[in-house]
Amino acid sequence: MPARSLCRCALTALLVVAAAGAPQTTTPPAAVPVPPTKTDAPDLSLEAREHFLLTAAIESVSSIDKGITHSQKAFLTDGHLNHAAQIQTIDLYLPVFHGKDGSQEVDFSDCWKYNVAAYRLAKLLRLTYMTPVSVVRLYQGKPAAFTWWVDNVLMDDRDRLLSNTQPPDLIRWDRQMDLIRLFDQLIYNMDRSQENILISADWNVWMIDHTRSFRKWNTLRNPAAITWATPELLQSLQALRREDLDRALSDLLAPEQIAAILARRDLIVARLAGQTPGVTPAPLP
After folding, report:
1. For residue 106, what are the β-bridge partners?
2. How much is the pLDDT for 277?
3. What is the pLDDT of residues 256-283, one digit of tens each?
4. Which end of the chain is more exposed for a tag (fewer CB within 10 A), N or C?
5. 110: closest CA among 223, 8, 249, 242?
6. Measured between alpha carbons, how far is 243 from 21 in angstroms, rounded to an integer?
7. pTM of the model
8. In angstroms, rounded to a whole number, what is the distance separating the alpha carbons of residues 142 and 11?
């Protein structure tokens, strides 16, 4: 993702971080263990992590080798807790984007705001066990996304494939990937690269870097990617209301982007219901 600038959203309300919605928790469905945290990052609540990212002092900043959005890794401290964060500042709009593969995209946007929006939407859907905390914070005088650095990362999916490493539980792995694909369809993610799927030491997967998401299209990018969901996720999708999304996302997304989320939600729910009529999606193994 080349570095760019210009995302057409109002910046006046950007420092509003709290998103209304369903009660939040870092606890995944019963069959999915909570990823272990580092010794300097105990089992903090989402709100505590948000507060830390918003207020902790920045001790050092370095460039991240992977990716092309020129993200940075910052080490933060509040005097008690030390933890890293990813800083993203990319902000670009293009009427037409031409890809290296000959493809083109109208109304192209690559923006740090979408990382925060993805996290807030994950809170509403109770998917924060797969999506790290991300907040709006000023960096060098400009708004940016500060995202919790995922702890105990074993590898990313690209490294897994290059090393021909197989998950210890293939069924569980497939179920987690099903959820990632569903979430990417909901947010219309244009760039789920293998490097944007992190694998923790206990083989929980994490979705990061959503800067090319939240297109205004009311269709699914790939309907065939919708294959499975937990009952909890299906219920959360069905419970999404426009007012909840407006409260959580209106400082980050345009009204047509929020409307498109609901339109795609309807298509996803209908597709899940139509795969096996009368059968509720099974729990994650």
Report:
1. 96
2. 45
3. 999 999 999 999 999 998 764 444 555 5
4. C
5. 8
6. 9
7. 0.81
8. 10
